[in-house]
Specification:
Layout: E1 6-12, E2 18-24, H1 26-62, H2 67-99, E3 108-110, H3 111-128, E4 134-137, E5 143-146, H4 149-166, E6 172-179, E7 185-191, H5 213-218, H6 225-235, E8 239-244, E9 250-256, E10 261-263
Parallel strand pairs: 4-6
Antiparallel strand pairs: 1-2, 3-5, 5-10, 6-7, 7-9, 8-9
Helix pairs in contact: 1-2, 2-6, 3-4, 4-6
The structure holds adenosine-5'-diphosphate.
Adenosine-5'-diphosphate (ADP) binds at residues 158, 162-163, 166, 191, 193-194, 196, 204, 209-212, 216, 221-227, 250.
């Protein structure tokens, strides 16, 4: 049983009579609340870096700082601007995903080339964050997935960048694609990071849901990555599996139905970097 909201209207109906109309408005009210929460979240997410940025501008305007101090301030300002850029980019991606019909099956992406593009980004991100991680991309099967290559890459990149961002130095990230016995394809991203408590797992794909707000921000997170992944996965008829436990790392896997796959005859394995 769940609570419902009923709107009741009384309309004049002939001599001294009234017609009572009732309507279940639960879904409408829920959508309204979600929209309001979303706008409040977005405003808050933009206001924080904007306040910091404005503070730095004011300092630079009012104090004559030595050159190296000035550079440090400018660098911090660039970081805040970048944070807002990532947020706006993710918001636009989400709104495109929510407002467009699912991609047709006309385009195909070789799993190997999706992984190769992610591998480069994963290594660059780890380097930029100054992290020592053992990053492994297992040799992919010669398979192509139908759908939008841009969307598929964005989903996989989000999972891989989360693994890199949340796993501390000395840890391991393994990305592997394999055919399951029933013909489906699993793209799995496993890490030896902090892991996630079971009560958080069902909520991770909600927009702006974070287990640890400050850690997400510190590592440049927008809180929208897994919401984007969820949409892409749904639009491709796939399934998102999250297997994690505190202290035991996490595995995020996308499982594609066999109907979305075809063998890729002429895929050449990219050279190791
Ligand atoms: P964010 O930008 O905050 O990373 P996401 O939507 O990508 O947003 O992820 C939501 C939350 O899920 C994160 O804030 C983090 O708490 C948790 N999370 C995601 N991936 C991992 C991971 N590999 N290890 C631990 N926690 C993770």
């Amino acid at each position: 049983l769940r609570p419902v909201r009923i709107a009741v209207h009384l309309h004049p109906y002939g001599e001294g009579r009234k017609l009572m109309l009732s309507r279940d408005v639960t879904a409408v009210e829920q959508a309204d609340t979600m929209r309001r929460d979303f706008v409040a979240n977005v405003s808050h997410e933009i206001r924080t870096p904007l306040t910091v940025l404005a503070g730095f501008v004011e300092t630079l305007q009012s104090i004559d700082l030595p050159q190296d101090e000035r550079q440090r301030y400018l660098q911090m300002m660039a970081q805040q601007a970048q944070r807002m850029q990532s947020l706006v980019n993710d918001l636009l991606t989400l709104s495109r995903l929510e407002g467009s019909p699912p991609p047709g099956a006309a385009e195909w992406s070789a799993v190997g080339s999706l992984l190769a593009q992610c591998e480069y980004d994963a290594r660059s991100l780890a380097k930029a964050m100054g992290k020592r991680l053992e990053i492994t991309f297992a040799p992919p099967p010669a398979v192509e997935v139908s759908g939008s290559p841009t969307e598929l890459l964005s989903a996989l990149s989000n999972l891989v960048s989360n693994a890199v961002r949340y796993t501390p130095s000395g840890g391991e990230v393994v990305v592997a694609a394999r055919r399951l016995d029933d013909g489906r394809l699993e793209l799995a991203v496993r890490d030896t990071g902090p892991g996630i408590a079971p009560e958080h797992i069902p909520r991770l794909t909600e927009r702006f849901y974070r287990v640890d707000r400050s850690r997400s921000r510190e590592t440049g997170g927008t809180g929208l990555g897994l919401a984007i992944v969820k949409h892409v996965v749904q639009r491709h008829g796939a399934e998102l599996r999250i297997d994690s436990a505190v202290g035991a790392g996490s595995t995020f896997a996308i499982v594609f139905p066999a109907a979305r796959l075809r063998p890729s005859a002429n895929f050449a394995q990219p050279a190791a970097t």
